[in-house]
Amino acid sequence: MAKKILGAMHWWDEWQLRVLVLGSLGVQWFLLFAAPMRKYTIPRWFRTFIWLAYIGSDALAIYALATLFNRHASSSTSSCANGGWSRALEVLWAPVLLIHLGGQKEVSAYNIEDNELWTRHTVTLVSQVAFAVYAFCKSWPSSGDRRLLASAILLFVVGILSFSEKPWALRRASINRLAAESSSRMHGRERKPRRRWGLFTKLEDQVPSDSDLLHMILSGMSLFAVHTDLLMKRELMRQDSIRAAEMRWQREEGMTLQTEVEGEDEVLGPLSHSAGVKRWPAPRRAFGLIYTRVNVATTPAYLAFHFLLVPAIHVAAITLFAASRKRGYDPTDVKITYVILFVTAALDVLAETIRQLLYKLMSAAGVPALCETLPQYNVLTSARRRTQPATGWLLKCAARLGWEEHLLLVCRRDESHLFGRVAVSVITCLFQVQGLDLGSYRSFTAGNWALSVELQERCGPMVRRTLRKSFDESVLIWHIATDLCFRRNPPPAAADAAWECERTRAISNYMAHVLNFRPDMLMYCSRRHLLTEALEDLESILLRPDLDDTALLEAIQKAGESEQHKYPLIHDACKLSDELMEVWPEETRWELMYRAWLGMLCYSASMCRGYLHAKSLGEGGEFLSFVWLFLSLKGAKTLADKLQMPEPDAQDDIWRSTATAARDAENVDR
To answer: Which of 145, 230, 284, 637 has a Cα at 20 to 30 A from 268?
Structure first.
């Protein structure tokens, strides 16, 4: 037994560095295939494996470097003569490990906080490169083959430059950097304006590109503030041109110039595209802006380095190694070096081709892209699941350990199908939202954007009162009431109300999902404990796990008719469902409920900070972020607009209408 242990220890001492280097290479290939999938909706467990590979890749490469140079730090010419020469070939693996430390283009950052730590990565770059070069120079034998030395130097060039790309990309993708670039481009203060950004370089050409809009939105800028600056610049330019033209005409012909006043829509229009959804940046593009190297991958230096210089250097390094003298080296190390050089070269040269092929395969397989699912969570279903003997104890134990319920449940395959149907319905209702205050869905006036006057007339006192409650409580009450309405009288599949019911319940269950798993995105200071208390109340009501739907409804309605202080949320939800059931016909009832849920969905999306939306993209994304991007690009008022810009004043409206009338009268007289 002792001999076996000693033999295993001797084998590990001999193969430790080889295993580490080959393992580092294998992790890089795994990231090459797995990292592009982060732009799609993939299982949470697979994202966990990608995160482990991302964290472990740097640790594995650094540990391999430390092991390599611990074995060669004290080596000298005399030690090589005594048998260390056979291991000298291992030093050639050092620049390859630096290439691995550079990572993959599609996974420069895993969390949004990684971008803010670009200074730490810069310090790591300097220290690791300095240590690697120093140890290489110290470990390389003075009588070594010059062709091997030239091969190592070429690989060091690739490794150092590849390693340098990571902090560069992290710095350019940080939120503060995005805000600074957006502000400088908006005010035309770039030292060397680039045609590709081209924002506000000419006053007559004020159409921001998709990248400019994403920079503004993700960095938390107010598009209405941008509108105001554009209007001010346009007005100043118009006045200057009118004044100069009038002076010229008066001097030359003694006439006054008739000018054509440009409307505000010409200024506001570019920031609210109406050419269709396909022109707007998708959440996947926003993901690439923050979590990949797309900020640097389109620069001429990056393209020239990766498509011209890197392939030439790898070919030269492999050729020099093949032509070098290998007598005296360990044959196993020679074979492993060939494998490492060829596979690393293929990793660098074929990376972009493999990524594009993966994108096509994922699209052909119908895998939904980022944010293109509509997760569902139902409070009543969850309460029944907790009362089941088979699953209840497992869910309760997981909750006590701090595990979230959705980690133990299999995602439904129809979530992407629900997204497609609901997204089209939501977008169809939101084509004219420019300048709208989305919080007016609960005002019950003519300015209510979600509920028409006819639907408001059908709203009873309970509908009005619950919509005006605190937002998180309102969402929970309406969620339970919507489910009760469906269970009490589900519309037939062939009825016209079936589609209204399906999209209403989809948004209701999704908002409950956000309240349960992402309460910070639902609304600032949302109280998740309200849902927990409602679950506990429903568990106490549904004591028997074998209740059918009829008995379940009777138990909940009986609890709702009890004293209000015992089950306050259940009481309000039952009263609301009773009032909604009195709305007839069914199509009108479900239309009213859908419009109310649409108002809550859009208001929640617009009131969430852009930073939280950007952070959620790195964790799988949310449908709420899709709606938020849509609303921002259509010109609806978001949280940044409400905080930056004042509310419209009645006196300002009177002044604007008077000025417009006077200007029109002046044009008619001319």
So the answer is: 284
